[in-house]
Amino acid sequence: MAVEIVDYDSAWRREGTEAGAELIDAAPGLFLDVEHVGSTSVPGLAAKPVIDLMASVTTLDDVTAGRRAALRRLGYRLQETGMPGRLFYFRSRADGRRSHHLHIVTADTWDTRNERLFRDHLRSHPQVAQEYGELKRRAAADAEDGLAYTKRKTELIQRVVDQERAARGLPLVPVWEE
Questions:
Q1: How many CB atoms lie within 10 A of CB 159?
Q2: Residue 40: CB partners within 8 Å, gap ≥ 6?
């Protein structure tokens, strides 16, 4: 399936905020933090039209059957990704295309999450955001599927995340979680 990259849409900010509030309301007491991450959270950046959210919980076991049911009522479906220390959910539009991704992680890893570090760097370095947007368009045009698209972006993401982690005195880690 081809990857669709579109110009920045100012509605994404509102959609991210609303989706985060909806999650907090649906599962009271579960989420310690919910943030809009990913390209749709960076003003001016071209992106796949998917709202990426990251939420922290005390422990992944806090996502009990009742809370999973609350997420299902919002349209979120659990997908096994093999990424350690995280639960990944997606929500789709009526046409079957994804509209939201939800990454649930533990609070003890919140401050060192690569997605948050990368987002913050792009927000404060517009020239890097522009470089990344151009790379995303090229990768989408060349990629035969979403996995190939993601892998084509890894070198730039790794470079930026390494810079951010080094600046904070954090150990360097691969951005590609398997």
A1: 12
A2: 9, 12, 15, 16, 47, 48, 49, 50, 51, 52
Classify the C-alpha dihedral 71-72-77-79 as positive or negative. positive
Rounded Cα distance between 136 and 46, Å, is 8
Could you report the per-residue pLDDT of 114-129, keeping only the tens digit for each?
999 999 999 999 999 9
Instruction: Please check whether residue 18 is in contact with residue 35, taking contact to mean a CB–CB distance below 8 angstroms.
Output: no
Continuous segment of H or E residues that includes residue 115: helix 114-124
pLDDT digits (tens, 9 = 90+) for 154-173: 999 999 999 999 999 999 99
What are the pLDDT digits (tens) for 65-95? 999 999 999 999 999 998 899 999 999 999 9
pLDDT of residue 12: 98
The whole-angstrom separation of Cα 169 and Cα 9 is 35
Lookup: tokens for 41: 């959270």
- Calculate ∠ Cα 120-126-127, nearest 5°: 125
Q: Which long-range contacts (CB under 8 A, 24 or more apart) does 155-159 make?
A: 156/131, 156/132, 157/114, 157/118
